[in-house]
Specification:
The protein is mostly beta strands and 575 residues long. It is built from five helices and 38 strands. Strands 21, 24, 25, 26, 27 and 28 form a six-stranded antiparallel sheet that branches. A six-stranded mixed sheet has the order 30-38-37-32-33-34. A five-stranded mixed sheet has the order 1-3-8-5-6, with no helix packed on it. This is CUZD1 protein.
Amino acid sequence: TGVPRCGASLHEPNKALRIELNANANCIWQIQRNVNQTIRLIFSHFKFAPSSSCETESIKVFDGASTDSPLLGQVCGDTDAVPVLESSSDSLTFLITTNSVAFTRNFFVFYYFFSPGSRTENCGGQLTGANGTFSSPNYPASYPQFRYCVWHIQAPKNSKINLEFQDFFLELDRNCQLDFTAVYDGPSTDSGLLGKVCGRAQPTFESSSNMMTVVLSTDDTNSYRGFSAQYSTVPLPGPMEPNTTLTCSSDSMRIVLSKSYLASLGFREAQLQLNDPSCRPVVTDSVIFSFPLASCGTIKKDEGHSITYTNTISLAPAGSTITRQSNTEITAQCRMRNNETLELLYTTANNAIQNLAAGGRYNVSMAFYESESFSKPIQYSPYYVDLNQTLFAEVTLHSTDPHLQVFIDTCTAAPQPGFGSLTYDLIRSGCNKDDTVVTYPAFENHGRFKFRAFRFLRSLPSVYLQCAVVICDSNTTNSRCARGCISRQKRAPSPYTWKTNTVVGPIRLRRDLRAAEHSESLTEVEAEKTPNLQQYNFYTLAFVVLISNILIVVAVILKHHKHQVGYSYQNVQSS
């Protein structure tokens, strides 16, 4: 890896690139290698300038050795996917252009050559039925490097899919750039992205229809045991058409409208648009809008007790320039409040309103890091440390909304993951309760703090952390996040904007690990030196006989020198 400047010619069989670009860039990277293989190119992280469009900033990928080759695809700031592109030959070119806005753009891309149809590409597959299970290659052993597996799940009609990862352990990094699992709300990776996860977790996802796509992508660095997942189905809710739903996630809003429902209103899908007219739907069996929360003209409102995202689908009757229907529109609203997301989809047509509500939540994770640069996360568990060692913790909000702020309200330590009666406060109501705690200023979508390692008394070896995190609109000056530490006397009765708990651990002392290893070593040595039972009985008998003979000799000597011994004893007593 590295931070290559504007463009390069690449010939390695695989490579990862961290790219930083400023304004007015026009950079070309060419990948070429004289082999009978094709190239898989993965943009696992990209950050363009705020409010940029595809016309002014983008990544264009070409299927060949120059930008004159056929266009494979385009990546923009509002791309709702982890773009993966494959060449048809042994060469590929990508072009990154940026506009004149002063902003540091960040990209992480890696590629590798592979042979389509080979045994190493044999993973993923089709899953049908109301429920099922699947796992990463080699699970529970370590998954192989350079794998791209895609599972397509199709459940019975008029149902939605609940996906649960029962065991999940992938390589951890800040933006899930290396090894990751991506889940899409539909039949392919062109559907809306429900989420991208890595590290250690037990994530769950819910589709808005009877189809879902799951992707596993790995690189060539660290490899862990992967995942085991199961899915089940539940009927789609009413009272709207069965295929009319709204799904809100930490990253996006997804609206699915049935054609029969639109027809009942007298409209065709060609006349649909959001607040931003350039955001148009994808039309399959249904009409689907899927877009990041902070895009397509979405209006965000901080209501004190919740954050609301609202967008409106305008409907113009087909074949006409006028309408006599009053306030004809579909409004989609996602309300993030108190550990839940209230999703409301309603239509105002002829003054009639229909509602649909479901569930969801922000996606928040927590991890330890090696230093206060917060660049290298701790990727193993338990995390063994020294007593009084400084530990660095970071809470991350995974959201496409750039105007959200993470505030660590409360952090509690406990010797057990259940957080029972024995707990210890590090942070409470935004106030540092432990003398060693230092909180860092808010940084983008991260909340950070450090503290010194400790242990609980009564021989309890582990420490777990549970943090209550508050999410606020960064543009609101009087939000809970902006108020900082609140003492009991100053505490306001109003609820938080949005609050959730996240847990990390266990932490254990390194000396306990050394003690355990030493004990195990002594046990092995003693086992090697321990004689068998017959030898033991022989040595015991010989020792008893020897002691008996010694006692007889001592008795004879004492009897023979009785007076001398008594005299010496008296002298000693008088002395």
